[in-house]
Amino acid sequence: MRREKLTPERIRRFACPPDRKQVFLWDTEASRLAVRATAGSKSFIFEAKLERRTIRRTIGDVRDWAVPDARVEARRLQTLLDRGIDPREQDRQERARRAADKAARETAEREEQERRRYTLKALCQAYVAMLESAGKKKSAANTCSSFRCHLYEANPEIAALPARDVTPHQIAQVVRQVREAGKERAAGVLRSYLSAAFNAAKRAPLDGNLPSSLIPFRVEHNPAADIPTIPVQRGKRVLTPGELRDYLAALGPHLADQALYLALLCAGQRMAQLLRVRVSDYQPETATLRLWDRKGKRAEPREHLLPLGAEANALVLRLMDRAQRMAQERGALQVDPWLFSSTGAVPMDTGTPGKRLAEISHAMGGQPFDLRDVRRTVETMLAALRVSKDTRSQLLSHGISGVQSAHYDRHDYMEEKRAALIAWENRLAEVAEGRPAGAVLPFAKSG
């Protein structure tokens, strides 16, 4: 073992012979310190024994370490050995600690990024996108409007919170603000929309029918579920025969008026469904109009068939002729035209007939009414005509999503619906003439 006092000059001259892989020059000042020389490098090393095991540890390149500093490090390592501590194990622990610290920092940074990204607002937006992709355009628009007005704009600090951290108290605060502003129905609807969004995100990891975009929100509970539901005040407005007569008289030849008239003739059909009708949805052989009911949680829209009465059938034929002429003028004969369209390219906006009805209601004076009130009026009068509840449900496409209707009752109710629509047209004829229910005269109204 060659041992000399290490100096920069001695280290410079020290070299590994060509026939050796490595050689060592041991220091006389720090007995466990040496310079190891190989064919391409020189470094300070420390070597000693711990429990009869040789411990060798590289301190560093001689170009990076001064001799005094290397001696200090060698003595430090010897001190550890004297205490029974293996420097290599200490190094491993230090590397593990640093790795753990790095992982913790990265996790914290990732968590913070997720907190900033997967907020309550982002969850609401993802839920609206889910409704849109499911074809529920109107529901998506209504939901988006409620969130924007009562959450994004009114409570931006809550909207910016991570969705998974939102508490029931915060949801209650949002809903209470709307309710205390006198908007009882809007508050109930907002609570329902928020609950639906949280439920969708909560179920997404296990439900393949839900979009994967909801999974990263990591929602484990629904804070809106703890908020009591707000009962919606049931509508009671029913038009009198005189009001219904004035309403009929106000309907003119414009397309929105014709949509309102056909909805009325067809026993108060939902306007959104009626405006989606195309020419191909009419079956001339049976005078049947097909609607698609997308309302509720249906994965696929339900086919809703209406066997038309004479007046409704005549109106549909006129509307079909108009739609086909528009398609011909646009050079779009191969396209299946919309029955209600101002341009032929897109269906009429669902809000247009409602606005027109509001104009008529305002002009009539008295208590205002809307499309829901007209629909309620029709069902009330159908009940007075002794049309059964089952037939009314089939005719208005509501209350038929239960187990019995979905799985067991396979009757199509076409004859019952046809008889009811004919009886309804006859009753409207009586109303238009100002006659009480009784003898029926032919009903004719120009469109």
TrEMBL record:
Chain segments carrying region Disordered: 84-113
UniProt domain Core-binding (CB): residue ranges: 118-202
Short name of one Pfam family: Arm-DNA-bind_3
Keywords in alphabetical order: DNA integration, DNA recombination, DNA-binding
The protein's name in its UniProt record: Phage-related integrase
Residue ranges annotated for the Tyr recombinase domain, each copy included: 234-422
Family according to the record: Belongs to the 'phage' integrase family.
InterPro entries per the UniProt record, alphabetical: CB, DNA_brk_join_enz, Integrase-like_cat_sf, Integrase_catalytic, Integrase_DNA-bd_sf, Integrase_DNA_bind_dom, Integrase_recombinase_N, Phage_Integrase
PROSITE patterns: CB (PS51900), TYR_RECOMBINASE (PS51898)
